[in-house]
Amino acid sequence: MIVTVRNDGPLIVSIPHAGLEIPEDIAPALISPARARHDADLYVDQLYAFAFKLGATLIRTTTSRTVIDVNRDPSGQTLYPGQFTTGLCPRVTFDGDPLYHPGQEPDETEIARRRAAWFDPYHAALTAEIDRLRDLHPAIVLYEAHSIRSVVPKLFDGRLPEFNIGTNSGQSCAPELAHSIAAICAEQQRSHVIDGRFKGGWTTRNYGEPDKGVHAIQMELAMRTYLTEVPAADWPPRYDDLHAAQAQATLRPILSAAIDFARTQ
């Protein structure tokens, strides 16, 4: 299901990976529902709920990224050539563990079905909101809200910075937007990087057109920024309001800066 909460400010917060729902006709093919949900961007929808009060429109899907990843290139082309990543309909987890029983992985027909059922509606909703807000504002910011475990050896070395800002190497938004967000992180002594391991997924790359007034930026939070991470055997961790509030103390000025940026264009 696609959930859109409309507002009229020049900011869209897109949340493509917080969903946990797995349809009944897909679940039997999976080795484990828990494993299928392990790579979710846990609680990111709760974390960013405050954005509506700032004037932002929020769009999210309740469907698990294991069913279909709405932030991947629908052609199947990898976003990070030469590096491990998961695809449009992932067959393995971020740790490389198989998601499906042997022989039950989605084939081309099933991938096409899932794209029509979940991927296309998400991007239709996103496109509609971009068009609506561009009619109201000379420029808007599309902010892709993500999170990931702080340590995922198959994806990156060591421990991820808290705030990972992605701009597709400066192509998806004006550099001053990324720099203003990085400055807020620095002021609050938060570890951060611009275009490190995560440079932005397909949504950021596809919709970011700064010369046409659409500035797209991705924020990949290390989960320790807003919750207490636990061992895999105890996953998932619980949502912690106090810990989340500490992260929101940085995220709130970041989103406000994005709105101020759009209004000055």
What do you see in this structure?
- InterPro entries: HutG_amidohyd (IPR010247), N-FG_amidohydro (IPR007709).
- Its EC number is 3.5.1.68.
- By secondary structure, this protein is of the alpha/beta class.
- The chain is 30% helix and 15% strand.
- It has helices at residues 33-36, 44-47, 108-136, 175-187, 202-207, 241-263; strands at residues 2-5, 11-15, 57-61, 140-148, 163-166, 192-194, 214-222.
- The model has no long low-confidence stretch (mean pLDDT 96).
Write the layout of secondary structure elements.
Blueprint: E1 2-5, E2 11-15, H1 33-36, H2 44-47, E3 57-61, H3 108-136, E4 140-148, E5 163-166, H4 175-187, E6 192-194, H5 202-207, E7 214-222, H6 241-263
Parallel strand pairs: 2-3, 2-4, 4-7, 5-6
Antiparallel strand pairs: 1-3, 5-7
Short description:
Keywords: Hydrolase. The chain has six helices and seven strands; from the N terminus they run ββααβαββαβαβα.
